[in-house]
Amino acid sequence: MAVQAALIIVASVFLLPWWAGMLVFSVPEFRLWGADIFPDWPNFFAAMLCIAFIAAMTFQRRWLVGLLCLMAAILTTSRTVFLAVAIFLAWHVMLRQQRYTAIRLAAVITASIGAAALLTILLAGTFDSEFAARLLLISDRLAILWSSIDLMLESPLTGVGGVLLDYRVGHLGAASFHNSYLEVVVRTGLIGLAIYMTLILLPLFLLRWSDTLIPLALFILAGSMFQNLLRHPHIAIVFSVVIAWAGLRRRMRHVPETPANSCQIDSA
């Protein structure tokens, strides 16, 4: 992901419509500047960059790689980045109790975002209010939420099956529920949601995982409330591999001493 993050930054220099200023983050035509080059642009690609950011900043301890992925995720114009940063900083403060580290990281991240925003405004010569409006926009998600709940109540236990994305589920120009849990419960009911969540959460309980995996798991589970992350094969595979790899690393660090190992040590 670090290589892809670097490619996004380089591509943004030549392809991103900097003259549009902050409209880049609000106008759909500008937000899709990388859609012809990078897969699953922008939200799913941003989610993978956020996973790489959290992994690099927690159990990998590669801060430069993490900041590189974060910068690239910001350039995707997805609001998923704010969720990843908030969860990561909250983990530092609440679980690691590293308030000063969190403050320093927040300062670095805020300064980086502020500098990029200032540069964009200076290049464009203007600041557009649509950017701030988009950050606070929730009406589209609420429309999908209420219509999906109405649809779910038709058959709460077993679901309504393969539903087309039309006006019944708050279709507002994007063919998506924008919520993994809503889509599963509408299509397969509460029974299907229970099976789905068991399959997702079971690996977390079977592994001896450390608290460094908490921000990663929270990002995936919380982010799925705003995007269909867990239904997307790339995200599901990356999530499973990272969780398994991190758990394996932790077990290898705490391998108990076996009789064979102790004999080799004594003979040495």
UniProtKB/TrEMBL annotation:
Keywords: Membrane, Transmembrane, Transmembrane helix
Location(s), subcellular: Membrane
Superkingdom, taxonomy of origin: Bacteria
An annotated GO cellular component: membrane
Regions crossing the membrane: 6-25, 37-57, 63-91, 103-124, 185-209, 229-248
Xref: InterPro entries: O-antigen_ligase-rel_domated (IPR007016), WaaL-like (IPR051533)
Sequence ranges assigned to domain O-antigen ligase-related in this UniProt record: 66-197
Topology within the bilayer: Multi-pass membrane protein
PANTHER family, sorted: LIPOPOLYSACCHARIDE BIOSYNTHESIS PROTEIN PA4999-RELATED, TEICHURONIC ACID BIOSYNTHESIS PROTEIN TUAE
Protein name, UniProt field: O-antigen ligase-related domain-containing protein
Species for this entry: Pseudorhizobium banfieldiae
